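Revision sheet: structure tokens.
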Amino acid sequence: MDIEAFFEGMPFASLLGIEITECADGYAEGRLEMREELSWNEDELMAHGGVTFTLADTVGGAALVSLVDQPVPTIDMRIDYLSAGTGDLYAEADVVRCGSDVGTVDVEVYTAEEDTLIADARGVYKTG
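Predicted:
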């Protein structure tokens, strides 16, 4: 499976502008360039919570896909929002467990400019 092509062809991730920048051995990184239409605030670019969540979910899935070489539908995801996501965002994901039926991934989302942790997530995905 061509992981980069798979995520580049994901319509919703493409709509938001999510780019997977690294993906191998149970680890993934991705980024998102913040734009006005992704903000919840018309006075300042601040990522809507759904945008932050989708970045975390997509990068988390990519980390697991790097191990199982197939699509991994999300079963559950929990996210803690720690700070406002101002400006461009990036996420890092590490697989915690890759089982035959499910996998678990930890994801952290940061602001690109200030390198501030803005969200911490854990996703559970279907692997089998």
